[in-house]
């Protein structure tokens, strides 16, 4: 019977810790980008040409803020998936400790 176990207990625990940190960090960044925090203006991908050629520059920048915020939320969701896989690996490792081969 093939096993779904593909990483050890330490790697799985590390994956859980990194996933928790990633979810917290990226969710907070997503919230701050969605709130259009002025501190994060350097991380919004626009150039001076975009501002000069646009008739309504603030709306363009606000749209970019929202897009970056959505990207942060998507990355946080991916970290949730990685954390779920890591949690399954921890449980499979615990179960394998009690099995006699």
Walk me through the structure:
- The radius of gyration is 21 Å and the shape is rod-shaped.
- The chain has one domain.
- The protein is 72% helix and 0% strand.
- The chain is mainly α and 101 residues long.
Report helical residue fraction.
Answer: over 70%
Runs with pLDDT <50, length 5+? none
Kindly report the oligomeric state of this protein.
single chain
Q: Radius of gyration from the CA trace?
A: 21 Å
- Derived structural class: mainly alpha
What is the approximate shape? rod-shaped
Number of domains: 1
What sequence of helices (H) and strands (E) makes up the elements? HHH
Mean pLDDT score, rounded? 90
Secondary structure tally: strands: 0
Q: Could you describe the largest sheet, including whether it forms a barrel?
A: none
Total DSSP helices: 3
- In what range is the share of β-strand residues? under 5%
Keywords: Membrane, Transmembrane, Transmembrane helix
Family: Belongs to the RNase K family.
Subcellular location: Membrane
Organism: Triplophysa tibetana
């Amino acid at each position: 019977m093939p096993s779904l176990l593909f990483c050890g207990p330490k790697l799985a625990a590390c994956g859980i810790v990194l996933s928790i940190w990633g979810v917290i960090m990226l969710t907070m960044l997503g919230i701050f980008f969605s709130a259009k925090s002025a501190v994060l203006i350097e991380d919004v991908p626009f150039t001076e040409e975009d501002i000069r050629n646009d008739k309504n520059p603030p709306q363009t920048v606000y749209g970019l803020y929202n897009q970056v915020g959505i990207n942060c939320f998507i990355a946080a969701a991916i970290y949730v998936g990685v954390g779920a896989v890591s949690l399954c690996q921890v449980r499979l490792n615990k179960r394998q400790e009690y099995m006699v081969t």
